[in-house]
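Sequence only, no structure available. Ideas?
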Amino acid sequence: MKIPLLSICIATYNRAEYIGETIDSIIPQLDDDVELLVVDGASSDNTEDIVQEFAQKDHHIRYVRLPSKGGVDQDYDKSVELARGEFCWLFTDDDLLKPGAVDYVITAIREGYGLIIVNAEVRDCKFIDILEQKRLSMRENKIYDVNQMESLFIDALAYISFIGAIVIRRSIWLSRERELYFGTEFIHVCVIFQKPLPEATIIIAEPYISIRYGNSQWTPRSFDIWMFKWPKLVWSFAHISDQAKQHITLKDPWRILRNLIFQRGIGTYTSMHYHKYFSGISSAGIWKISAWLISQLPIKVLAHFLYCYNRLVRNNALTLYDLNAKRKG
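Reply:
I predicted one. Tokens follow.
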């Protein structure tokens, strides 16, 4: 059997409702150079039945069921270990590949890039309305040589918190520290930025991915992730300057009350979070009182306030739907 050039690696758990549509978008782009590998973290729904049905019809599809759920970091790492391709596209289990995506990525692979970042559009949960034309606002592809890691960090890090954008040479992934970063929720970011990359990177400007917005499995944990885990990770890279890190996030974004207001507006900051993180800290009394009051604000009222602010002041495309989708996801 021919060794594929590219493995599209999906780590999944209980996504029977969505994964069939995802696979349908990938199948027309599979050939002997491209395999689809689905690693299932012991789903309790009928995810296995759905994927196995596809695999029986197309020999380019492989399904591996793990004995237990390892978590997003462990399961994606396992998918790279099990992949046969020279490159791995760490795709998501509820988004779609647009036609031509694989051909364009294969071209970039053959041009010698070690990391390929694929731009995406954002659609509503049913893929009807476009909420954002491009997550990365760029007209042309951009290339970063091995000495431009900091520029790549500044330009792309916020976007590549979305793992589905990443196509990486498998040997680079396997040569780097991974277990240390299990539990961070962003193992791909850790693999990329823990030290300089040995090959150039390209960002593909054309949005070849359609993101299903508001459907993240980690929405209930998003306060913990974005206020604590993500900043800790961003600030952990010793070879990246503090100025570059500051461009992405503060060390303690939770100290900024407007961040708490936004998190409350999307329903991810509650009185439970206040008592878990803030009730025992030694901080100015006025800040603690404000943090507690924010945790009590009516979510619907605050969501509409944020909608008006985003619409009128920031002209943000992801407005009311953005807030509601995050709250309901």
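The chain has a mean pLDDT of 91.
Hope that gets you unstuck.
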